[in-house]
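tl;dr need the bound structure. longer version: we got a ligand (flavin mononucleotide) that a collaborator sent over and nobodys looked at where it sits. i said id run it. heres the input, straight from their email, havent touched it
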Amino acid sequence: MVAYFSYSGNTEKVAKQIADYTGGTLAEIERETPYTDVNEEGEEELNSNACPDIEVNVDNNVDGESSRIALLPISFQNQCCFL
Ligand SMILES: Cc1cc2nc3c(=O)[nH]c(=O)nc-3n(C[C@H](O)[C@H](O)[C@H](O)COP(=O)(O)O)c2cc1C
């Protein structure tokens, strides 16, 4: 399974390439309330250690897939709150 969050489309392109190459199922992570000002809201989340509510859209049943790859914005590396 290839799970990803993409605000402006770059990560989505890479995730699709990886899914094509590996045969893994794409799982799009979306913020329930889309960012209106990503810089301000992203900084607020980081500073307050908050994690936004998310939805994950998966096309298939991934029970049989042995590997999971996650592609997330760089600022989420510290908190990994989407995982
Ligand atoms: C909430 C949020 C916070 C971000 N914070 C940073 C950051 O602190 N430093 C940085 O270099 N990029 C930051 N980014 C930019 C992401 O790393 C960027 O979106 C990444 O290049 C993937 O691009 P994409 O949204 O087009 O898929 C942030 C993006 C988001 C959505």
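gonna send this back to them w/ a short note. The chain has a mean pLDDT of 88.
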